[in-house]
Amino acid sequence: MNPAALIPTPGAIQVPWGWFEFLLLLTFILHLLLMNALVGGAVICTVKTLRGQGGSAAVHDHALRLPTLLALTVNLGVAPLLFVQVLYGSFIYSSSILIAWWWLAVIGIIIAAYYGLYVYDFRFQRLGNGGRLFLILGPTLLLLFTAFIYVNNMTLAATPDRWFAYFKAPDGTLLNLGEPTLAPRYLHFMVAALAIGGLAQALVWERKRCKGAADEAQAAEHVASGLRWFFRATLAQLAIGAWFLFSLPRYLYMNFLGKEQLDTLLLGVGLVLTLASLHFARKGRVWPTVWTAVATVAVMAGLRDLLRQAYLRPYFTPGDLQVAAQYSPLVLFAVSLVIGLALVGYMLKLWLKANREGE
Fold first, then answer.
1. Is the distance from CB of 105 to CB of 81 less than 8 angstroms?
2. 349 in a domain, yes or no?
3. pLDDT score for 178
4. What percentage of the chain exceeds 70 in pLDDT?
5. What CATH number corresponds to the domain at position 259?
6. C-alpha separations of 118 from 40, 52, 129, 250, 347 in Å
7. Range of the structural domain that residue 245 is part of
């Protein structure tokens, strides 16, 4: 059977697909940065607690921020998921049905992780190292498993030829475990989270040091520790990224090795930015590391989208979508997005101010 026979016919969209593509990338980059800081921070807390450092000031600082990061990650994750559904609904809806039980379980998993992080925060100072480990390990594993479900869904959406597995497992419990890129793609995201989690720690303590809100020696120690996490994880990303690239079918990875100019250019830019961020991290320069890391994440998000389009090109391209020419919903969304981001920024400002006053 031809996989194309399994793909539903897409509906019309309100405006040309480029608008949705731009908003998808913008909101996904914001979501990705927050998700990385969240998951990386949780893993760093877990590892440090396993090493007997669960009561350190850096871990306590992570504990205070993790519940807020989870809330922001979830909220900023809604928009890119909606834009993916607008552009690739025929694929993402189908894959979501194939893994229905796992996909629906994400809601309960995130609620449980959210509750666990709040308990970890509220009881942090009353517990010993063992109690802290118990409370942070559960939410960390839940967050890592949620990412695993997402990677399964996104890889399954991009490979309709694997949908035939439904006829052997029609109960909604399918996972795309036979996909060769699943492991390197998952590790690519999670190791990136370690890097950004470490960088977030360095940035927080650098700001504290500049504002005199922390002891100079203590702040310098936590900045250096965060940059070490970033450096080592980013260094590992070079190997994992190569594994991910060459786990792709040859006709796809050749797009990034000269066959497609844009794909190759972006990969080269991403590599240069990665090396630059490693250089700045090694030198202990926090802000240049932050800007090159953010730029790297943005480039990698673009590469991820080009890869998805290449996967689906035999069946579909976003340019094929019919346009209904109704701009008012887009205008309303754009206005709401600007207002929403302004309000989130204001709330973060109040939150940071409250934290500074409590120190």
1. no
2. no
3. 92
4. 98
5. 1.20.1630.10
6. 17, 21, 17, 46, 19
7. 15-325
